[in-house]
Amino acid sequence: MPIKIPNNLPAVNILEKENIFTMDEDRAYSQDIRPLRILLLNLMPTKIVTETQLLRLLGNSPLQVEFDFMYTTTYEPKNTPHEHLVKFYETFAAVKSRKYDGMIITGAPVEQIPFEEVDYWQELCEIMDWSRTNVYSTLHICWGAQAALYHHYGIPKHDLAQKMFGVFPHTVNIKEKMLFRGFDDVFYAPHSRHTEVKREDIEKIPELCILSESEQAGIYAITDKKHRALFITGHSEYDPLTLKAEYDRDVLQGLPINIPANYYPNDDPSKMPVVRWRSAANLLFSNWLNYYVYQGTPFDLEKLTEPDDISSLYGAGI
């Protein structure tokens, strides 16, 4: 949360240079407080696992958050009990009249299928278009990020020679951006994908900015310059044993799979994995929820509009 300080206190300039978020008295007094409304479009097959991972990270915040869960109707989930969907999930038709402070679009195990051949592609495109006017800030994860970059900007995905699989070191390109406030110079994040987006394709789009990348894993974090959409190519939400479960599954099925990089001690799958990304994951999601949702979303969501640039609210640091 921001530090509230007296108006025009000299320390504010020093704190801002150190990437400490401050709020003057005038702005603090003008803030209205209410629960944030977040919508999760869960495209993962094991929906209960994914929702638990994300709620664990988003719950690590003093902000009060209300969640709605959504799934696509053009594809019948096979790995989640129907009773769970009926009890906790809604369809797009049920939520499309609402407005939300934030939304998360997860990854999906369909990255090797052309976008247009994914069963629910047209429904997903409709949802992504709707999010631009009905959601203040949308966080796209892994294939969800690739899908949104392709749909909104025409950025293609490219096949990798082998699966990007493991926990990789990353650096922050623009350190004053609020998404990475509090991060170390080098931080780790898991990846598990067969495709990638390339720097040269992203740099052709003036509306986009690359925030973080990895020498081994490539581009990691992208934002649009209106700061209303974030695209994360990795899986910071993964639990300690998620990569192990994927590795064991593929080995059992006789599929070609490398030992996940930087995961097992001495690359020995008989040993327990080393968790290197937990603190960075908590920071990533709490920073998104605080700076990109809470600090900018209107108190009355019916007044939700798409400003030219929300950085004017906080200075260039957002």
Overview of the structural elements:
The protein has ten helices and twelve strands. It is an alpha/beta fold. α1 (11-17) links the parallel β1 (3-5) and β2. It is globular. The two termini are 14 Å apart. It is 29% helix and 24% strand. The longest helix has 17 residues, at 278-294. It has one domain: Rossmann fold. Mean pLDDT is 87; it is low at 1-5 and 309-318. Strands 5-4-3-6-7-12-11-10-8-9 form a ten-stranded mixed β-sheet, with helices on both faces.
List the helices and strands and how they pair.
Blueprint: E1 3-5, H1 11-17, E2 22-24, H2 25-30, E3 36-41, H3 47-58, E4 65-70, H4 82-88, E5 89-90, H5 92-95, E6 100-105, H6 121-134, E7 135-141, H7 143-153, E8 158-172, E9 186-196, H8 199-202, E10 208-214, E11 218-224, E12 229-232, H9 242-252, H10 278-294
Parallel strand pairs: 1-2, 3-4, 3-6, 4-5, 6-7, 7-12
Antiparallel strand pairs: 8-9, 8-10, 10-11, 11-12
Catalytic activity: L-homoserine + acetyl-CoA = O-acetyl-L-homoserine + CoA
GO molecular function, one term: homoserine O-succinyltransferase activity
Protein name: Homoserine O-acetyltransferase
